[in-house]
Amino acid sequence: MLPEEREIERQARQLYEALSAVETGGHPEAGDGLGRVLLEPVWAEVARARRLAVVPDAALNLVPWGALRVPLPGQGWSGRERVPLLEEKEVVEIPSATTLAVQRRRLAGRPTAARWAVIFADPVFGADDPRVAAGQRTAAAGGAGLTRDRGADPLSPRFGRLPATRREADAIAGLAPAGQVFKALDFAANREAVLSGELRRYRIVHFATHALADTRNPELSGLVLSQVDAGGRPRGGILRLPDLYDLDLAADLVVLSGCQTALGRELRGEGLMGLTRGFEAAGAPRVVGSLWRVEDRATAEIMRRLYRGMWLQGSTPAAALRAAQRAVRRDPRYRDPHFWAGFVHQGDWR
Fold first, then answer.
1. What is the DSSP string of 124-172?
2. Within 10 A of 5 (CB to CB), how many other CB atoms are there?
3. Which of 54, 43, 57, 46 is nearest to 97 (CA)?
4. The pLDDT of residue 152
C-alpha cells in the first residue's frame, strides 16, 4: 500500500529541494526514502525489467527517478546497501501510454532529416558584450568569464554569457562527419533562425543557453537567444512556449542543455505544460531536459558523452543519456546526484 497522496508529494518536493540545492548538493543517500516508498511495492516486477517507463503526476514530475535508490541485485529492501536506480535500469518519462501510441502512429514513415544536428550556443545577450564592440560575428577571446550555471532570473533583463556552451558545441560537432552539424553561434543563435523553417533539415536540435521556467504561466517559459544584433541593436531574443507550437520539426530528438528546461505547470488530466510539451507538439518524439539549475562543467561532460553514445556507439538517446550520467557519476567531482541526476529523458525510448 502506498502512503496518502499528500505524503508522497511532500517527500517528492523534499527530495527535489535536497538534490537541486546548488550550495550543498543532495547527498548520495537522499533518494533512499522516496525510492522505498514508490518502488518497493512493485520491485518484484521492476527488478526483472530492463527499462522503467514512468508516467508521473503532480509533484512526481520533479523527481529524478534515476536517483532513487534501490537494493543491489539479489538483495532485499532490508539490506543497508543501495544504489541509484540509474545503475540498474534505463528510466524514461512519458506523458501516457496512449499519447506514446498516437505519437508513434503519427510519426511512422516520416522521412529522416538530411543532416545530423543543429546547435544553438553562446548567444549574445547584451550590447556590452565584447563581440558587439568589436563588430565580430565570431566569438572574441575572453568575455564575461565562466558562469556558475545556466539558469537565469526571469525577473532580470540581464543574462551572463555562457562561453562553456561554445566548447560544448565544438565538442559535439567534433564527433560527427564534416558538414553534418551546423553551429549557430554568437549573433546567429537567434530566435529568427529557429522560426525560419530551416530546422526541418536536422535530426537533432540542441539548445545550449539560458532558460526561463515559469511554472505558474508556462506560456512565459522560454529559451534565451541573442538579445542584440551585430550593431548592438535590441532584438526579440526569447523563444517562448507559444513559438514552439508554430514549429514543424523533423527532429528525432531535442536537447535542452540549460536550467529547469523540463519543468512546467501541472494541469490535471493534461500533464506537464512546458518547453518539453511544446517541442513534442512541434514533432519531436523525445526531449532531454533538466529539472534544476545545472552546473556548467558537469553539463558539458554529460552532453559530450550523450552524443558519443548516440553517434559513435549506436545507442538510443535514452540509453546514451543513462550511460553518460553513470560515467559522470563516477567522477569524484560530480558524484553527488546534484551534478548528474538533473537531466531526464521524456518521450519515446526507441
1. ---TTSHHHHTT-SSPPSS-S---SBS---TT-S-----HHHHHHHHHH
2. 12
3. 54
4. 47
Cell (9 digits) for 30: 537522499
pLDDT of residue 265: 86
Between the CA of residue 106 and those of 36, 101, 285, what are the distances in Å? 37, 9, 10
Is the distance from CB of 20 to CB of 293 less than 8 angstroms? yes
Q: Residue 192 and residue 239: Cα distance in Å, rounded?
A: 9
Give the helix, strand, coil percentages of the chain, each rounded to 5: 40, 20, 40
Three cell numbers at 294? 545545472
Mean pLDDT taken over the chain: 89
Interatomic CA distance for residues 136 and 157, integer angstroms: 23
pLDDT tops 80 at residue 89: yes
Query: Is residue 2 over pLDDT 60?
Result: yes
Strand partners, 304: none
Closest CA to 345 of 287, 305, 296: 287
221 three-class SS: coil
* Span 199-222, average pLDDT: 94
pLDDT tens track for 269-295: 566 789 999 999 999 999 999 999 998
Which amino acid is it at 239? L
Distance CA 295, CA 259 (A): 9
Alpha-carbon distance values, 189 to 48, 133, 142, 230, 278 (Å): 45, 18, 19, 12, 19
CATH level 3 topology of 106-347: Rossmann fold (3.40.50)
pLDDT band at residue 154 using 50, 70 and 90 as cut-offs: very low
Q: Where do the structural domains in the chain lie, given as residue ranges?
A: 5-93, 106-347
Residue 80 burial class via C-beta count within 10 angstroms: exposed 0-12, middle 13-18, buried 19 and up = exposed
DSSP 273-311: EEHHHHHHHTT-SEEEEESS--BHHHHHHHHHHHHIIII
Q: What pLDDT band is residue 75 in, cutting at 50, 70 and 90?
A: confident
- Distance (Å) of CA 222 to CA 236, 259, 270, 296: 12, 11, 20, 19
**What's the predicted TM-score (pTM) here?**
0.91
Q: With b meaning 16 or more CB within 10 Å and e meaning fewer, what string describes 84-102?
A: bbbbbbbbbbbbeeeebee
